[in-house]
Specification:
The protein is α/β, with parallel strands linked by helices and about 425 residues long. The protein is about 50% helix and about 15% strand. The strands form 2 sheets. It has a 9-stranded mixed sheet, sandwiched between helices. Strands 10-11 form a two-stranded antiparallel sheet.
Length: about 425
């Protein structure tokens, strides 16, 4: 048995970055594989009923595929699961119970294979049939999703709510938002190269890790494929974790997965919609800055300018936030550098100052009119009012440019900081 710190030192060269933990232990079986090409990495929680068969299935799958591999069980059980897994030839990483996503994060320093295959230890995914994943890895794929809908679903293996509503709906949402063509984004059996897994920089602690993986794989432009898989019903005597946690658990899992789609793809809802709102707002504001503009049966007046001002402000704010998100996540270094160039500190601060001065100058005639009228505005819109609305837009834009520049460069610095400490 090795402690986490000792194992980290063995896995990483001296001076390399790795997380500091004190509650993780690695158990190594007799006859351990020396140099695995594929790592089967699977969390387990009180799976004594299935764990022996699962490890045997993995060994059979590796033999059929003709590939050297290790089986790494991330275990938080209170039953005999770790002892059974170890006795059947699997490595066991003992961790505190902190969530499904966190289990994979904890396992990363211990994964030795170039390729990683994930799944469940409940024998609902047939790991005897892993050759399809190996073929896609050898073809150069970096992220491989299993698909139950393109494979086979055994009767009574998937609740109707999941099969006909939850999975299809959330898969369709992701496909529409990100122009992808997945058929089953919640399939637990999936493959990824170790290098890509590290680049994903997983953050999710629970069920939502599945959606985070898919989203980041798309945003990072990983070469992706799907492999049909067989989904089997729970073995006799076993109760799924969904059922163990009550009827509300599927809804909670669906909600947090949807939340992950929104959080890890926030720029999708900010950047382009923001530009569209900004363009529409400017079309309603700038042409009317010198007075009403007849447009067929409609006359664009001061009221339309106020609507345009609102749209412009919301649009500019969304655009700035979208730029910040892309710099923070750095899915694409080219995009991040594009926004850093656009908001280059010296140029952006100068632009902010000049825009603010222009806003003040455009609003000054209305202030004079207000003072001359005995602190009252004219009852009818005047050219000064139109210019003042445009000036207000300039002032708001100056503030957004100023604040976005500051936050953007802070976010860039934070994004480049390592998440792990050096021992």
């Amino acid at each position: 048995m090795l402690s986490y710190r000792a194992m980290a030192a063995a896995v990483y060269p001296a001076g390399c970055l790795h997380p500091v933990e004190n509650e993780i232990e690695l158990l190594i079986p007799d006859g351990d594989v020396a140099d695995p090409l594929l790592s089967i990495v699977v969390p387990a929680l009180n799976e004594r009923i299935t764990i022996a068969a699962f490890v045997e299935w993995c060994q059979a799958g590796l033999a059929r595929a003709g590939i050297s591999g290790e089986i790494l069980i991330i275990d938080s059980s209170t039953d005999e699961t770790p002892d059974i897994a170890l006795a059947h030839g699997a490595r066991v990483l003992r961790t505190p119970k902190r969530g499904l996503g966190r289990a994979y994060i904890d396992a990363i320093p211990y994964i030795r294979g170039k390729y990683v295959l994930m799944g469940d230890a409940d024998c609902t995914y047939d790991f005897r049939e892993l050759s399809g994943f190996v073929q896609q890895f050898r073809a150069g794929c970096e992220f491989i999703m299993g698909s139950r809908f393109r494979g086979a679903i055994e009767p009574d293996s998937m609740p109707a709510l999941h099969r006909y509503f939850g999975t299809p709906v959330t898969t369709a949402i992701l496909n529409v938002l990100y122009s992808t063509h997945f058929s089953d984004i919640h399939c637990g059996m999936r493959g990824i190269t170790r290098d890509a897994l590290v680049r994903l920089d997983l953050e999710s602690q629970s069920w939502e890790y599945a959606s985070e993986m898919v989203l980041k794989a798309v945003c990072l432009g990983l070469k992706t494929a799907e492999v049909p898989v067989h989904f089997l019903k729970d073995p006799a005597g076993r109760l799924s974790h969904m059922k163990r946690n009550g009827w509300l658990e599927p809804w909670r899992a669906g909600w947090i997965n949807l939340r992950a789609m929104l959080l890890f793809g926030a720029d999708f809802f900010l950047l382009r919609p923001g530009l569209a709102l900004l363009a529409l707002g400017l079309l309603l504001t700038v042409p009317v800055s010198l007075g009403p503009v007849p447009l067929g049966p409609i006359t664009l007046s001061l009221n339309w300018m106020m609507l345009g001002l609102t749209l412009s402000v919301v649009g500019l704010q969304c655009f700035c936030l979208g730029c910040i998100v892309q710099v923070m996540y750095r899915y694409s270094a080219a995009r991040a550098e594009r926004w850093l160039r656009l908001f280059a500190y010296n140029r952006a601060m100068l632009a902010s100052g000049l825009t603010g001065l222009a806003g003040c100058a455009l609003g000054l005639p209305l202030v004079r009119q207000y003072l001359a009228g005995g602190l009252r505005l004219p009852p009818v819109a005047t050219p000064q009012m139109h210019l003042a609305v445009l000036g207000l837009l300039f002032l708001v834009a100056a503030f957004h440019i100023f604040s976005c520049t500051l936050v953007l460069h802070v976010a860039n610095g934070r994004a480049r900081m390592p998440r792990f400490k050096v021992l």
